[in-house]
From TrEMBL, chain A:
Keyword Transferase part of the UniProt annotation: yes
Name by which UniProt lists this protein: Anti-sigma factor RsbA family regulatory protein
PANTHER family (UniProt xref): ANTI-SIGMA-F FACTOR RSBW (PTHR35526:SF3), ANTI-SIGMA-F FACTOR RSBW-RELATED (PTHR35526)
Listed Pfam families: HATPase_c_2, MEDS
Family annotation (SUPFAM superfamilies): ATPase domain of HSP90 chaperone/DNA topoisomerase II/histidine kinase (SSF55874)
InterPro entries: Anti-sigma-factor_SerPK, HATPase_C_sf, HATPase_dom, MEDS_domain, RsbA-like_anti_sig
UniProt keyword Repressor, yes or no: no
Ranges for domain Histidine kinase/HSP90-like ATPase: 194-299
Domain MEDS intervals: 14-155
UniProt keyword list: Kinase, Serine/threonine-protein kinase, Transferase
UniProtKB/TrEMBL annotation, chain B:
Protein name (record): STAS domain-containing protein
UniProt xrefs under CDD domains: STAS_anti-anti-sigma_factors (cd07043)
Provenance organism: Actinocorallia longicatena
Domain STAS, chain residue ranges per copy: 214-303
SUPFAM superfamilies noted in UniProt: SpoIIaa-like
Cited InterPro entries: MEDS_domain, MlaB-like_STAS, STAS_dom, STAS_dom_sf
Pfam family name, one: MEDS
Amino acid sequence: MPALLGAGRDSLIHQALLYGSETEFTEEALAFLAEGRGADDALVVIAPPDRIDLLRPGLPPECEFREAAGYFTTPPRSIATAVSVGRDRWWKDGGRVRVVAEQVWKGRDPVEVREWKRFEALVNVVFAGTRTSLLCAYDLRTVPSDVMRIVERTHHGLDYEPPARVYAELDRAPLLPQTGQVAHRGFVRGELPGLRDFTAKAAAVFGLTAAMPLIMAVNEVATNIIKHGGGSGSLLVWSDGGAVICDLLDPVGRVEDRFLGFLPPSPDQPSGAGMWMVRQLCDLVEIRSGGTGTIFRLTARLP
Amino acid sequence: MDAPSGPPVRRHVAVGDMRMGDHLGLVYDNDTERRSILVSFVRDGLRDNHKIIYKSDSAEPDALVEWLAADPGAEGLDLAQAVADDQLVVRTAREAYLSTGRFDPDEIIGLSLTELEVALVQGWGGVRLAGEQTFALRGWPGTERFGEFERKICEAFAALAPAPAMAICQFDRRWFRSRPLESLLESHHGLVHVDDVYYDGVLRITPTFTPPGLALAGAVEESTFPALTEALQRLGGETGHLCLDLTDLDFCDMAGLRVMLAARTSPDGQERMVLLRGVGETLAGLLKIAGWDDLPGLVVEEG
């Protein structure tokens, strides 16, 4: 969708910097950030420490640096941080922000990689209409080819596709099967106090003691199923050894919202805030919805 | 060395839970709160076919009845009719206690017991007594025996067991000094407080008066959300700003949080402050994650 390019100060520009050497990275990133200095744009670099070291000498002191590992924790939390910092600083008083960002791909498991691919598509939805110029850097020597294929489909000026299409495609991957002992409990209207107790006990059995965020998330999804879905559902709690996983099944209800819970709630019109909160509270939320109902899978990593 | 003596353990009784034989203190510094308790006391008495005898030190009988009738809780009560039927009797403290020119506890208790017998003969199911004890501060002859009077009421109730009467003695905290007040309260079975507006085993909602609002205990969730919404609606025009005491709230879902924040607009469309008091760590975290912690009109007190 090249029409978005340069379509005015209120539009997102989301471009990719594909580089083959440190020199190439440094020159192109600095040139991109330098374009904003005349316009008084806020300058931000989110990257691994060695990339930050390459850029820092060429940038003014007011430039903001964030370490990639600390920033890219989960896609929903990264979105929340950007939205919050953006509202407070970057976009304040009509300003524009210029960001150079490099993701950490190494050491991520396949599910994490899939979610960070989703993030590439979501950026185009969440930050549409914000005064943001984003240059995402990819080291062609190390970034896997399946990631590069997504990069091409999610950045302006390449083979851009509608974000909903990329997002839906990522949901075609089946959820991993449940393993080990599975605790099960059904729920209907009026039974949430018991469901919260059940969640707390099951989470503790699997080793999660500080389970309040997970309990709140389970309660929120169960409430949605009772109020807006099929009216009753079931909860399955299990563990893959590294995390406690809660599957909430709605045998009837279907999720129509493509980006459910990824768009920040507005204070004036706060509906939809529930799933936003669920995504913030969990380390991973996976939703699969179809003719046979919906499954919400909430994951909380064990410490 | 003597063991340190803590404050005396007192029963705390909701006015709606009072039983025959109860002789309770009502310590107040807020007349709205006091009236709310008294109106519940009167309303329950009318419902149960009790005779209600009120001794007023603050107003003439007509004015006192008008003051009671103006309470929102008196809606639907015909107090004038109750006075006409001799079911509700209001006397000034001066005529009740000073008819012989001197405050004499034994004589007054003797008269009260006679009045009690007469009421039962007339067919009333019991007698409810309520008195404003500020008269004891007027320096009337004999009032130095006021402490003895309170003690002897307790003894008289005990001698009658099962007593066909219950009593509320009102103490204005602004005028009774704390040490004499403490010893006066020792001659009572406990303290009376306002009725809950809602309790279902999951959530308790209790009105508060300084500052005006609601105290919530238990869980705000799918099953209790309608009750909270209704209680907030009812606080409509009565108060300016609104305090929600969440000290004993164990759980709150997003919908509950949302409806509390929405109370920043009163039912008649006025902007007002919502003070959230005793906000726990989890709830404070939710407010921050949602970006709702600095909404205009919202004050969050953690603790």
